[in-house]
Amino acid sequence: MRAYFSILPLLYVFQLSSCSDEKTTEKKDVKKNYFSDAEVPDSAIDFKNEMATGETDFLRSLSTHQIAWQKWNHEILKKAKDAQRPIFALLCSPLGSASRTVVDELNEDQDLRGIISSQAICTVIDSTVNPEMANLGYRLSAEEKKSAAFPMIIWLSHEGSPIASDPVGNISGRELKVVVSNLANVVEDLWTKSSRYTVENSRSENEKRQLRLEPNVEELKQPVTRNELFQRETRQLSSLYSFGDKNLDFIGGLIPSSSIELLAIGSRSSNLTGEVREQSREAAKVMTLELTSGALKDHLTGFYFYARRTDDWTLPFFSTDLLSQAKVAATLMKVGNLLGDERFTKQGLELLELLETEWLAKEISSKCPNGILGSNGAFLWDYRTLKKILDPDQLKVATIAFSLEPTGNIPLETDPLGNYFNLNSLRGKTSTQEVADELQLSVEEASKAVKTIKSKLLTFRREQIKITRESTLTVKDLALVLRAQILRANHTGSPAHFDAAKAIANRILSDYWNPEKGFFRISSDSTMVPARCQDVMAVGRSLNELYQATLDQHWLKSATEIVDHNIQQFGYSGKILTEVTKEEQIVPLKQFSVSMIFGESTLGISDQTLSRLYALTGNETYGGIVDAHRKYIARQAKGRVVYHTDYISSCSLGDSPLMAILQGDIGSKLGKQFISILNAPKHLSFLTIRPESANPLLTPLTGLPPAKGTASVVLTRAGEALGQISTSEELTELLDSVISGE
Predict the structure, then answer these.
(1) Is pLDDT above 90 for 457?
(2) Do the beta carbons of residue 177 and residue 108 sit within 8 Å?
(3) Where are the alpha helices (DSSP H) in 443-579?
(4) What is the pLDDT of residue 421?
(5) Which of 370, 323, 359, 322 has the alpha carbon at shortest distance from 61?
C-alpha cells in the first residue's frame, strides 16, 4: 500500500500530542503561534500568476492556470512570511509527461485547486532551471526510503526549510487527490495549531541534513594518491562488469557514459595489469555495443533516450534530451579512438550531425511523449499494433531486425511489476546481412525493407503520440555539444568542423558570460538564471579542450577567467566547491554535489577541468581544490565506484602531470600533425598539451632541449624530460611507450 505522504516525524508526534492536550490554554496556544506578533492577514490575499515570465517553455505554459503560481525565487519567502502561509512547491522535470499531467490536474480539479490555493503560496520548480532542487528532492526521498520521482511535492516553511514531501510521480485521479489532500490537511493542522514548532523543527531538520551533506576532506591517515585511486577503482569497475547480462551491475539503468569511458581509458593504461586492461577493453567494447544496439537507443530516429530506472527497476521514462545526445556522441567518438574501433567513431560522428541539424538548428533541448509512456506506439509496441501497421512480410522482417517477440521482449528483471507485459522495445542487435541471410533476401532488399518499416512505425508514432518540446538551451547543453564538436574536429582535421566548435564557444561567451555580472545557466531577453557550479566547470572543461586542440590562448584565457570568477562565487575555502552560490540558496542548504542523480558529478567535471588548468598554470587554488577532491573520494569511492567514474577518469592524468610541450613552428603542417596526434583521446586522456612559448597564463619552462627541426615535441613529467621527437611516427611510438608501456 502506498504511503501517501512523508513528514518530519517529530512534527507529526507533536501535532498528535497537542491535539490531545485538553488542558492547553489559550495563552499557551498564542505562544506557539510563530506569527503571533504580526497582524493576521486576510485569507483572500490576491496573488497573480507569474509564470508568463517563466524561464522555460514548461513554466510559461502554466501562465493561463487559475492557480496563482509564484516564481521560485527569494521573493517567495517574503510572500509566505507576509501571508503567514507555508509554501506548496511542485518540483517538476520537463523530461517526463507526468509533471505536465499532474500540474494540469491540480489546476483543473476544483477541489485540489482550492486546497492548495487557500492554504499555501504555490510554486512550480523546473529542474532544468534549478537542478539543485532535483538533488534535494532525491535526498528527501532517500531519507524516507522512497524512490525519487517527478513531480515531487515539497511543503516548505517561509524560511525555505522542507516540512513535508512526497515523490508523487505518474499518478492521477483519485490517487492524486488522496495524496495531495492528506498531505495538505496534515500540514495545515500543524501550521494552524503550532506554527512556531513547525517552523523551528523544519529548520532543525534542515540543519541536521546540512551536517550529513558536509564533505569530509580531512587529512587521511594513509594518504591515497590519484594514481592509486585510478588503479584501484578502474580494477573494481572492470570486476563489476557482468558477462551474463553484458552490463555493469547496480547502475540503475542510467546511460553509463562515464563508466564506459573509464573502462576504455583503463584498457590503455600501463598502471593496470594486462589482465585488468583486457577485461576493461572487453567490458567497454561490449557495453558500447549494448548501448548502440539496445533499447536505450531509439532505432527509428537514431537518438538516445534519457533513462533512469527507479529503485524497483521499473522501466524508465522514454524521453530524449540534448544533453544525452551530446554525451553519447562524445562517448562513442572517445571510445572508438581508445579501442581503435571505427564503428563507434562513425556512429558518434553521425549522431553529432543529427544533433546539430535536428536539435541545435531548431533550438530544441528536450522531447517527451505526452500521455501514458507504455502506450502502444509511443516507444513500446505490441504485436496487435504492429500487425495493423505492417503487412505480413514486413512483420517477418521487423521481427528479426528488431528482436521482437509475440509475447513481448521486455525481461522480468526490468519489469518486475508487469507494467509492460506483452510489449516490445525495438533492438538493433541484428545486422542487415543477418536479416538478409535469415529470410534469403539480398542485402539491398533487406535494407530497403527495414527502411520502409522504420518509416511506417515512425509515421504511426508521430500521428498517434503527442510530443512536447522544450526550447530552453542551458549553457551546459552547449558545453557538452562543444565537447563533442572538438572531438570531431580533432578526428577529421576539417577547418569547417573547427569553425563549428568555435562558433558554439563564442555563443557561450556572448550569451551566457558577463565579466561584470557573472556566468548564467539560462540567458534570454526576459531572464538570466545564474549558473550552477557544474555549468561553470563543464564550460571551463570544454574551453580548455578547445585550447588544447588549437593552442589559441584566447580559449585558455576565457576558461581561466570564468573558472576564477566562479570559484569566488562558490566560496572556496580549502574545501569542495558548493553547487549553488549563497545568493541563490533559496532553501538554506549548502549543497556539495558530489554525485548528481543525472550522471556526471560536479566534483568529477570540476576535477577534469581544474587538474589540467593546474598543470598549465600552476595556480595553487586549482591545486587545493583538486587535492580536496582526492581526500574526499578516497573515502567515498570504495564500494561506490560507479558513482565516481567521471572523477576516476580524471585521475588517469596522474599525480605528476604528463606534459606534451610543442616547440618550433606549431602552425606548420608538421606542428598541426603533432597537435592532432596529441589530442586523440587515446593520448589526451593521459596528458596535458601546451606550447613552449612564454605566456603570462602558463608556468615558465626550464631545462628543455632546444627545438629540433621545423617542430618537435618534448614529453615531461615532474620537470624531467622523457623524450624529444621530431616526426609523427616517433611521437606515436613515444606516447604508446609512456602511456601504455607498449
Answers:
(1) yes
(2) no
(3) 443-464, 475-492, 495-512, 533-550, 553-569
(4) 84
(5) 370
**Which of 594, 468, 474 is closest to 127 using CA atoms?**
474
Q: For all residues of the chain together, what is the average pLDDT?
A: 87
C-beta neighbour count of 620 within 10 angstroms = 10
DSSP assignment string, 387-428:
HHHS-HHHHHHHHHHTT--TT----GGG-TT-TTTT-EE---
Q: What is the pLDDT of residues 601-613, one digit of tens each?
A: 889 999 999 999 9
For residue 27, the tally of other CB atoms under 10 A from its CB is 7
- Cα 112 from Cα 191, distance rounded (Å): 19
How far is Cα 474 from Cα 541, in angstroms, rounded to an integer?
A: 16
Domain span(s) for CATH 1.10.10 in the chain: 380-465
Query: What cell numbers appear for 194 in the block?
Result: 503550532
Let me know: does 483 contact 344? Beta carbons within 8 Å. no
Structure-model confidence comparison of residues 498 and 383, the more confident one: 498
Residue of 162, 179, 70 whose CA lies nearest to 115 = 179
Question: What is the CATH code for 6-213?
Answer: 3.40.30.10
Tell me the whole-structure pTM to 2 decimals: 0.92
Contact 176, 102 (CB under 8 A): yes
* Percent of the chain residues topping a pLDDT of 70: 88
pLDDT tens for 106-125 read: 999 999 999 999 899 999 99
CB 692 within 8 A of CB 702: no
pLDDT at 478 over 70: yes
Higher pLDDT, 613 or 702: 613
Q: Domain 658-740, what fold?
A: Glutaredoxin (3.40.30)
Decide yes or no: CATH 1.10.10 for domain 380-465. yes
Q: If residue 28 lies in a helix (H) or strand (E), which one and from where to where?
A: helix 26-32
pLDDT at 122: 97
The verdict on whether omega for the bond into residue 706 sits within 30 degrees of 0, i.e. cis, is no
Give per-residue burial for 328-362: e unless 16+ CB within 10 Å, then b: bbbbbbbbbbbbebeebbebbbebbeebbebbbee
Residue-wise burial string across 63-100, b where 16 or more C-beta atoms lie within 10 A, e elsewhere:
eebebbbbbbeeebbebbbebbbbbbbbbbbbbbbbbb
Nearest-angstrom CA–CA distance, 215 and 644: 15
Instruction: In whole angstroms, give the CA distance from residue 18 to residue 21.
Output: 5
258-274 average pLDDT score: 94
Residue 536 pLDDT more than 90?
yes
**Summary count for the chain: helices (H), strands (E):** 28, 19
Question: What are the grid coordinates assigned to 522, written together?
Answer: 539560462
Which ranges in the chain are annotated with CATH 3.40.30.10?
6-213
| H or E segment to which residue 383 belongs | helix 383-389
State how far the alpha carbon of 343 is from the alpha carbons of 11, 217, 285, 340, in Å: 58, 42, 11, 9
More confidently predicted of 368 and 88: 88
C-beta separation of 425 from 295 below 8 A: yes
